[in-house]
């Protein structure tokens, strides 16, 4: 009996506040927009009984999904989210790998401090970290002032409100997610393997390429997914740094809901976004499981 | 004794400069006299004064703290229960669905979580405000808590619990007297994680709140949408300071606790 309550409380909570809301989104994505409160049709009328239920289901359709394919805005936004997520994941790897590598090779008594320095930004507000780049990248910002003072440029570079600013924002905020899994893979690396490779005639670069890189592959894959998955649906970074030029699906969904008040289309956008995300999520889970099996 | 090679020194310096310079600049410009944020016009703390006199910010801060305290506490209780169920309850009907519902919110885009909860609250005709934000934050934070706690639960020696049961403890007593003290560090870090996630959240709070409650992130977001503002720099500096002090204190406390534990263990070994 006690076991039953223990299971039931978190179970029911998640059913009510995770699964049911999601089913509602699914249902509304099949409804039509209406000038009413709430602003969509049809409404389920429990008083009408079986007949009401039948007419309710007969009015649901895939119109909104069809609409998503006809309007350029949506598929462009999906594609550009994917592109931005891919490019920024690659850039994060480029920045994160050398840092993780250097941390793993640092003297042992330094490592806890370095680790804390990587984790510390994670505890500071995400919003503030994104915001901090607004003062750096804007036309009269710190970066442009510095470059002009150095005489490298004469007129300010337009970085703010471009996709470049979004890349910088993503790399900056998600860098710890890339560094940590790679670091934990590299830290376990047995140094004698590298010595063996060098004894057998490898150059240091060859030893890195043939030994270190493959052995840190699981960390790299995990880090890439941890950056890629949340970036696709990102809202804060494109709306603060990307300006109106940057098209990302999280922002489209937000505007569809808050500005256009078209709930059915916003719900359809959400459903398609989730369908896109299922592939990387499943791949990520598989990678994690393989790693656990390899360790256990 | 290993030393830093030049390559590693350069990558660490550049990497940490990249991570910390933006925040250092933010703190630096919060003491700027000028309203033009990037033109230095002398040292001043006037933006802090203005911030502390701004009732709207103080109200938002109070709402945020209230939401964070309630939701992280609830999330810790529910998340610990969920972790216990995942690791200890064995097989039951719908276990796959349960673990799916624990892990899915971790990868769910915030815009979707926010949208779906809002539609639920509207369907239930709930008045949106502090209460609905607490419900929303509890739901996603409990999943993070349960991941943290369950990783601790899987690694600890189960025979300790069994011994307590053999010695006549009820299952609840065994949990309170044996399990809970052992997993306490994980429960505390789960609470801290839930608290920070709640303090931080803009997207889900924007969806699930109503006109009656504005949280600090919502306030910050609407203030900075149009550009950099010195007041927000001051506010950010205060928040960065709190977090830094908190993290450093926590790491010192846990280091001391680890040292004390090692000393106790060694004393126990010597006593044998």
From TrEMBL, chain A:
Pfam families: BPD_transp_1. Keywords: Cell membrane, Membrane, Transmembrane, Transmembrane helix, Transport. One of its GO terms (biological process) is transmembrane transport. Its main location: membrane. GO terms for cellular component: plasma membrane. The chain crosses the membrane at residues 12-30, 84-102, 114-134, 165-186, 220-243, 263-284. It is found in: Cell membrane. It is a multi-pass membrane protein. CDD domains: TM_PBP2. Residues 78-284 form the ABC transmembrane type-1 domain. PROSITE patterns: ABC_TM1. Belongs to the binding-protein-dependent transport system permease family. CysTW subfamily. This is Putrescine transport system permease protein. It comes from Alloyangia pacifica.
From TrEMBL, chain B:
CDD domains: TM_PBP2. Its main location: membrane. The chain crosses the membrane at residues 12-31, 67-89, 101-124, 130-153, 174-194, 232-253. It is found in: Cell membrane. One of its GO terms (biological process) is transmembrane transport. Residues 61-253 form the ABC transmembrane type-1 domain. GO terms for cellular component: plasma membrane. It is a multi-pass membrane protein. Keywords: Cell membrane, Membrane, Transmembrane, Transmembrane helix, Transport. Signal peptide: none annotated. Pfam families: BPD_transp_1 (PF00528). PANTHER family: PUTRESCINE TRANSPORT SYSTEM PERMEASE PROTEIN POTI. Belongs to the binding-protein-dependent transport system permease family. CysTW subfamily. This is Putrescine transport system permease protein. The lineage of its organism: Bacteria, Pseudomonadati, Pseudomonadota, Alphaproteobacteria, Rhodobacterales.
